């Protein structure tokens, strides 16, 4: 793919530096790989969204970045049970 297409018109960042995006009304909120957050309001919302998807920039509306394994783990519950855990900690 030629370099002309890695930049979207009037958007200052190349696709390779984009991490994730969210669309709020008509403004895209975009997370860059360096941790910076930028806002962009394109003239054609759907066209810009298609450009992001073409470069596989994560849409947080459909992919929050949390694996399904992590979602099912409930770390708030001790495998020993609350009573046993608190009883064991008192003895220390």
Helix content: 25-40%
What are the segments in which pLDDT stays under 50 over at least 5 consecutive residues?
none
Report the sheet-strand fraction: 15-25%
- What class would the helix/strand composition place it in? alpha+beta
The end-to-end distance, rounded to whole angstroms, is 63 Å
Rg from alpha-carbon coordinates: 21 Å
Q: Please trace the helix and strand order, writing H or E for each element.
A: EEEHEHH
Strand order of the largest sheet: 3-2-1-4
Count, helices: 3
Gross morphology: globular
Main sheet makeup:
4 strands, mixed
Total DSSP E strands: 4
Mean pLDDT: 80
Overview of the molecule:
- This protein has 92 residues and is an alpha+beta fold.
- Helix content is 26%, strand content 21%.
- The chain is built from 3 helices and 4 strands.
- The protein is globular.
- The N and C termini lie far apart (63 Å).
């Amino acid at each position: 793919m030629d370099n002309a297409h890695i930049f979207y018109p009037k958007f200052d960042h190349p696709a390779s530096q984009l991490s994730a995006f969210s669309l709020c009304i008509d403004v895209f909120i975009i997370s860059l790989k360096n941790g910076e957050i930028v806002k962009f309001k394109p003239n054609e919302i759907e066209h810009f969204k298609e450009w992001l998807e073409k470069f596989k920039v994560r849409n947080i509306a459909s992919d929050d970045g949390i694996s399904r394994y992590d979602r099912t783990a409930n770390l708030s519950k001790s495998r020993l049970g609350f009573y046993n855990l608190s009883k064991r900690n008192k003895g220390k």
